[in-house]
Amino acid sequence: GVFRDVFPLEDSHRNYILDYNNYILGLPKYSPDECIDRGVTYSVPLKVRLTLNITDEENKNEFAQSIQQDVYFGNIPAMTEKGTFVINGAERVIVSQLHRSPGVFFDDAIHPNGAKLFQARIIPFRGSWLDFTTDINDCLFAIIDRRRKFPVTMLLRALGFSTNKDIFRVFGCITTISLKSKNIEKYYGTTIINDIIDENTGEIFFEGGTVVNGNVVETLVNNKISQVEVVDSDRQFSSMLLLNTMEKDPTHSTEEALGVVYQLIRSGEPPNLETAQKFIERQFFSPKKYDLGQVGRYRLNQQFDLDVPVDDTVLTMDDIVCVIRFLIDMRKGERGSDDIDHLGNRRVKTVGELLTNQFSVALSRMLRTIYERMNLRE
């Protein structure tokens, strides 16, 4: 699994492609008893069969040459018949521990001023942690990998919900009102979503964010505008939280949001639109960098009644929207927090998984060297 996740590797010009074939475990040098007597580790040699494909200069989809070789990766501890390991002559066992299952967890806390704050955390099997939280001013914030927090609307813009209207629509907070309605007064105090523009002259009557009142209605009716989209007053908490958050959000488009989010996470690096977009995609939507695991995907599907295939273990837009919507429902008092200590929210990390993690760390260190050497050969 680990080798399949990493390979094949390509250099920047696709001149060389290093592919994984299979691995071979050799025989131990000593028996477990001999290892105990000699004070050495009971282990077996690990060799990996790799193929270096050299592409044709004219057609990069064809190989001009292929070189196959067994590469010695080192010795790995082997399990004895008793289920133990012998490390430096001492017989050891793996003690399994309980860890949080991948998935999403909701919690609450009390601020020193007495206000109740709500938090959500998406924990993957592998990849960046994504947190959402409310503050004492009823704003929603996102935090990636426990770094600086930023308005959640900025994250939504970076993910493609560019305008305020896009964001309000995905949370079902838009309603169209008739300005000539007899009950128009009940919409006083609601917020206009988009700029209202004269189609003939291009003049802006009212900017998005303007609060509806008698003067606004009169001006629009006099200019023969009969309908306008406003933030739905029936979705009071959703509208309030999103409007409060938008006031803290300095960005107004996907491009702006991508640049700011990228700078927050990769401080010091100048933002580039294409680089920032690829970075966000890799963080949450690339199987190589992000993996909820089948358990995490199953738990998200169950919690939010989603129908995403269990094998699709990256985040989706629906996942993120559902988590934010659940957090808003918690603020309304309609949902409760999770019991972190409940065994249903925990799982046992097996020996195989611990070994997988070690291999992932080792291979990630090796990747840079492999890429450098492949590029040097050019």
TrEMBL record:
A biological-process GO annotation: DNA-templated transcription
Q: Would the keyword Ligase be found if you checked this record's keyword annotation?
A: no
- A molecular function GO annotation: ribonucleoside binding
Identify the InterPro entries for this entry.
DNA-dir_RNA_pol_su2, RNA_pol_bsu_protrusion, RNA_pol_Rpb2_2, RNA_pol_Rpb2_2_sf
GO CC annotations on file: DNA-directed RNA polymerase complex
**Sequence intervals crossing the membrane:** none
Residues in domain RNA polymerase beta subunit protrusion?
Answer: 30-375
- What's its EC? 2.7.7.6
* Keywords noted in UniProt: DNA-directed RNA polymerase, Nucleotidyltransferase, Transcription, Transferase
Domain RNA polymerase Rpb2, first and last residues per copy: 100-169, 231-349
Identify this protein by name.
DNA-directed RNA polymerase
Q: Which organism is it from?
A: marine metagenome
